[in-house]
Each structure stands twice: as structure tokens, then as C-alpha cells.
Structure to design on (483 residues):
């Protein structure tokens, strides 16, 4: 969790993996695409989007051996792309989320959470090739143009022709068209990516393997969060479901032969990610079950029973099974002379004013709390001051009961300063390599090397591209998670 808020990314950013970002439209004439790149002109819109993107995903993660591999792969892909004169820059983001993006100037972004899923050079090449395909096909510009045209048409219907009902209908139809357009872009980028890695000498089936790993990762995350997998395609989803992507990628890969044809260097890629941080970076805070620790800011708190927490660069987010209750923790710097009660009153939640405000003390820290009551949801808000930083906790429930409100109060009262020993004890988890011996099973490696890791066996399967039916091969290196 970082201090302060970060605005949404512009539509020219192509988000391609799992964690969706709400992006406002960008007028296409404002997007400046250099003829060759990658470049970021100081003060340009692309430069601002780059800085916002990096800040949103925890900054850059720097590893020379990983960067060397990614640069070599992207160079091979550039030479076989539709625009080989363009240059590309691959940037690793310091985030445990699984995601990849591209800006239209040739900047490609991969999170370290995504890197942890790949198990050979063909798999990671398929992701980079997918992003390069978005750039060469000008998908971001096409999206911006479609969105701009849709807004213009609905505005004319509503304002010029004095028919707001027709304007709303056009907007609804445009949303469906835009979502379908985006899904088709993803399918196109997948197919272009498979062909590109095959042309560059990588195994075409690497794309299929990575998409399978992506699907397993998504399912594991949903199981941890307590939500079921919905196999129905949302007509407004901008990405096709992963099984559809797998089927299409597999069909294209078969054009280039059976699995095993082309480079898929497992050893070289595993050596690159050996030692890479896995999960939360302690400098940004760490989730342990229902507890959250931030050793850099030196505070800790516990969410109520039943909450699953996720740490992002902007906030700590929590939700219960069925999404009946939700939680958010964020922070900002505020003048110490500003009253917490006044701050609560001046900052509505979802346009709902905060009332019933009272001041209190939480573990010797000045605090204030209040309620924002909406027609469906009620929000219990807490502000806690520590120096010039004000921490905000928002608890939400549908038709909040007195018992729920009491649980939220107890959770807020768990907010406290960390001790020096607690700060020292929190160390990052990392990807480590372990060589399997004759007779070793996945359960054996997990028991020996991943004690204390939540969902350890499932995580072992996911990061190694395995399933319960797979047998470990003696003498083969596998990824584990440890200090």
C-alpha cells in the first residue's frame, strides 16, 4: 500500500491478463505515437501514463538477469514483427498481481507475479509477443477511436436531437460493441503472438501452456477469495474467457507442428527468476491471513473474521464470501492542524455524506469515526492519525446490523504500531529452485521448503505449470517459495 491515490490509466493502455483496471476514454487525437521508439517525451501524455502505471504497480522491479532474458526475447520478436523498425522496452513491475500491458510507443510492462507463472523461454515469449501484437496492430488507437465515436454519436442523439432516451440506448449499445471489439483484439493478439514466437524460433505451444497456467492461477485466486468460477461469458467483459483463448491458441500452434518443436529453454528461464521476490513486497506491506503489516510505515491491523485481504499499491482491499461485506484501507498526508472530524465531514463516501461523527482514541492514536448510510450499503469510516499520515478504514455492508458494526469497530481498534522485532521479522518471500530426487512428490517439496505458505500445494502446482496428476521428474528443478 502506497501513500496517496493514483488516477485511472488512459484507454491507450492495453491490459491483457487478469487484473482489470477501470480506464477512462482518451481522445485519439491526443495520443502521440512516435514513428520509432520507444520514447517518452517529457511532459507528454504517454510519459504521464507511464509514470502513473509504474506508480500503480509498486514501481519497477530491477533484476539484471531477468532483464537480460526479457531484452533478448523481445529483440528476437521485434525482428519477426510486422514493424521490425520499431524498438520495444520491457519493464518489470514490482507487483504480485498477474498482469501485462503495453503502451502504443512500444513500452511493454510485465508484473513479477506474471513472471513467476512462466516456466520456460517460450512461455514468457508468448506474453511479450501478445503485447507487441497490440502495439503493431494499433489496438489502443482503434479502441480510443471507437470509444470517442460512440460518445459523439450518443451525445448527438441526446443533446442535438433532444432525445435522451435514444442517447442512453446508443451508449448501452456502444458498451456492448466496445466489449466485443476488445475481446476480438485479445483473440487477434493471441493468434499473432503464437505465430510470432514460432517465427522467432520458440515453441508455438508455449503460448498454450502459459494460458493454462494463467487459468489455473485465476481459479486458485477465486477459490482463496471464496468465490465460485462463473463459466458464462459476460457480454461486457473486454477479455475472452481463458478456455476460449487456450482453444484458439492451440489451434494456431498446431499449424507449426507438435509440442517440442522450437526453443522452450526451461533451465535458462528458471535461473533468471531464481531469487525473485514472490508475493507482497514488505516495503509496500504484507498480508498474512486476515492481518496486514507495513514494516516501512510501522503499523499493523487485523480485518474481521471471514475477510480475504489483497494488498495493492493504492490500498488494502478486503471482501467476504459472496461480497456481502467489503473493506478498504488507504492513507494520505494531511496537515496535522486539520481536525479528523472535519476531514470526515468534508469527504463523502460514494457521494454519501458521513454523519454521526465522533472522536476517539485507538491504541493511543487520535481517531474519528462516522457512518455513511446509502439505500443499499452502509459505510463505517475511521480516520486514524499517526504523525502527518492519516489512515482511512472503510467497512461496508449491505444493510449493516449492529453486530456487523461492532465487528468493524473491533477491527479498527486492532490498528497499532509495530514493534522493532516485528519489523525485523518480516522478510520477503522469494522464488527458489529445488531439484527433485527419485521418489519425490509435490507434497514432499512443499513440506520441506514451503512451510507456512498459505495454499502451499496449490501454489506449487500453479507456479510450476503442474497438476495433481503430474509426476515429478528426478533431476529436474522446480520452483518453491521461501525466504
Amino acid at each position: 500500500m502506497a501513500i496517496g491515490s493514483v488516477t485511472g490509466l488512459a484507454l491507450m493502455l492495453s491490459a491483457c491478463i487478469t487484473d482489470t483496471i477501470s480506464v477512462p476514454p482518451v481522445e485519439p487525437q491526443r495520443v502521440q505515437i512516435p514513428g520509432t521508439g520507444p520514447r517518452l517525451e517529457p511532459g507528454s501524455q504517454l510519459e504521464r501514463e507511464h509514470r502513473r502505471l509504474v506508480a500503480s504497480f509498486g514501481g519497477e522491479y530491477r533484476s539484471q538477469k531477468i532483464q537480460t532474458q526479457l531484452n533478448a526475447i523481445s529483440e528476437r520478436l521485434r525482428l519477426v514483427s510486422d514493424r521490425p523498425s520499431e524498438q520495444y522496452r520491457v519493464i518489470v513491475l514490482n507487483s504480485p498481481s498477474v498482469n501485462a500491458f503495453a503502451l502504443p510507443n512500444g513500452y511493454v510492462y510485465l508484473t513479477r507475479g506474471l513472471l513467476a507463472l512462466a516456466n520456460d523461454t517460450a512461455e514468457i515469449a508468448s506474453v511479450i509477443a501478445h503485447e507487441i501484437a497490440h502495439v503493431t496492430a494499433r489496438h489502443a488507437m482503434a479502441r480510443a477511436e471507437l470509444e470517442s465515436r460512440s460518445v459523439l454519436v450518443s451525445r448527438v442523439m441526446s443533446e442535438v436531437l433532444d432525445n435522451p432516451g435514444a442517447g442512453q440506448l446508443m451508449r448501452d449499445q456502444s458498451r456492448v460493441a466496445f466489449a466485443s471489439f476488445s475481446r476480438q483484439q485479445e483473440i487477434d493478439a493471441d493468434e499473432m503472438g503464437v505465430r510470432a514466437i514460432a517465427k522467432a524460433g520458440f515453441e508455438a505451444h508455449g503460448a498454450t501452456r502459459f494460458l493454462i497456467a494463467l487459468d489455473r492461477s485465476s481459479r486458485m485466486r477465486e477459490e482463496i477469495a471464496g468465490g465460485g468460477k462463473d463459466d458464462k461469458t459476460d457480454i461486457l467483459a473486454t477479455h475472452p474467457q481463458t478456455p476460449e483463448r487456450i482453444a484458439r491458441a492451440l489451434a494456431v500452434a498446431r499449424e507449426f507442428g507438435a509440442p517440442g518443436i522450437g526453443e522452450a529453454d526451461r533451465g535458462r528461464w528458471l535461473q533468471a527468476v531464481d531469487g525473485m521476490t514472490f508475493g507482497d513486497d514488505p516495503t509496500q506491506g504484507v498480508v498474512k491471513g486476515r492481518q496486514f503489516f507495513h514494516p516501512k510505515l510501522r503499523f499493523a491491523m487485523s480485518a474481521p473474521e471471514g475477510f480475504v485481504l489483497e494488498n495493492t499499491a493504492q490500498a488494502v482491499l478486503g471482501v467476504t464470501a459472496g461480497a456481502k461485506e467489503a473493506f478498504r484501507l488507504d492513507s494520505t498526508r494531511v496537515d496535522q492542524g486539520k481536525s479528523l472530524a472535519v476531514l470526515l465531514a468534508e469527504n463523502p463516501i460514494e457521494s454519501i455524506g458521513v454523519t454521526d461523527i465522533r472522536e476517539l482514541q485507538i491504541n493511543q492514536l487520535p481517531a474519528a469515526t462516522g457512518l455513511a448510510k446509502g439505500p443499499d450499503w452502509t459505510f463505517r469510516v475511521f480516520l486514524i492519525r499517526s504523525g502527518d499520515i492519516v489512515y482511512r478504514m472503510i467497512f461496508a455492508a449491505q444493510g449493516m446490523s449492529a453486530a456487523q458494526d461492532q465487528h468493524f469497530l473491533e477491527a479498527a481498534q486492532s490498528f497499532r504500531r509495530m514493534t522493532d522485532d516485528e519489523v525485523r521479522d518480516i522478510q520477503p518471500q522469494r522464488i527458489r529452485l529445488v531439484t527433485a530426487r527419485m521418489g519425490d512428490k509435490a507434497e514432499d517439496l512443499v513440506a520441506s521448503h514451503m512451510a507456512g505458505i498459505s495454499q502451499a500445494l496449490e501454489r506449487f502446482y500453479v507456479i510450476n505449470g503442474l497438476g495433481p496428476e503430474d509426476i515429478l521428474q528426478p533431476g529436474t528443478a522446480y520452483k518453491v517459495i521461501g525466504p
